[in-house]
Amino acid sequence: MDYYSRSLKIAEELSDKSEMAHVLLNFGTTYTTLGRYREASAALYRALAISDSIGARSVTDEVYKYLSELYAASTLPLPDTAGGKTLNMEEMRLRALYYFKNYLTLRDTLFSEEKNKQFLYKELNFEFEKKESLTKAEHDKQMAVALEESRRQKLVTWFVAALAIAAAVILVIIFQSLRVTRRQKMIIEKKNKHITDSINYAERIQNAILPQSDFVKTLFDDYFIFFQPKDIVSGDFYWAGRKDDKIIFAVADCTGHGVPGAFMSMIGNSLLNEIVNEKGIAAPDEILDRLRNDIIRALKQTDATESQRDGMDIALFVLDKLKKTLEFSGAHNPLYHFRQNVFTELKGDAQTIGYDKVPYGGFTKSKIEIQKDDTIYLFTDGFADQKGGTEKRKFYYTAFQQLLASVQHETMHRQEEIIRNTFNTWKEGFGQVDDVLVIGIRC
Hints:
52% of the residues lie in helices and 16% in strands.
């Protein structure tokens, strides 16, 4: 209890509501174990109020569970909520049933392996809920869209992870079965079709977690997104969010492509939602510092683990439209900026998001003023690394910069057409070597 008190004090000083809710939940469960039901009730109701205010449904679910146990276990009357009237024993039994029902209802909506398996066994007959039409003022509408995006992305992240694991297991079975009889090969062909259908469905799910066009249009008036995965699912992804008057936008390239890259993109997307939307961090260098630490912790990366090579390169900017400033930080990947045909490159740091044996010095931040009709570009290395042309070489970044410079007089829609056609023409006769993602924005 002493250490819980110290932890709660630190969380309150940092205004870390998520940690405050967790510590108060621990207070409540410990008080219940000790039979100190009045103190347990007060702690649990404080935890419930905080978790509701920040949308921490996993904590809310646990609070419901322990409130139910508290009212069922107590042999003495308890105050209603955090200090109202005193409940009699009949009211306490009803209150125990009420919170137990709430616990069961919320538990069924959380993201668990059992729920994901049920989705798979029902042959992926999951349908996403359509967004409700919002009738609030424009600012409230934008914030509501951002919150809905964050919640939906968390659900889809767990869903596609379970789907990809199932697909990977079936792939192993298929490759082992290639050595057996012709009849078994026919079975494999049927399974392969089932896997392809499943991964095609996974592609739709992965596309669903990316920022939807309706949301991006609330952030930028004129932009394009050229996204062309090497395989059905992609290790490249982009992310967008809003914090007060600031727009946060990122383009990331995860280790690998296909299903392995898609796993990493799910992790990166989920962590960015937590860092920006839940923790409220809005400085680009702080976001990348936190993202790197969270990736290392999530993958349990150390000198002795193979997973130390897993991670991502990323370019991330924070645009303040009122102050007309842009702050940028990057892990390997840069940002390109054009103003009246004058080209500027904001370089990222030579370190990745993930474990690296090279000493880590923290990410740096660049800042520039933004003017009307400036264009900015974020991208992964797939375009520049693509082999093709008559000389059978890579496209390279110099040629990529020249391509962007040549289309500055065009609309963003036309720029996307030219960039896409250039890439597809360049790689004719060659297989695509990596996922490709290029995003352009006119200020």
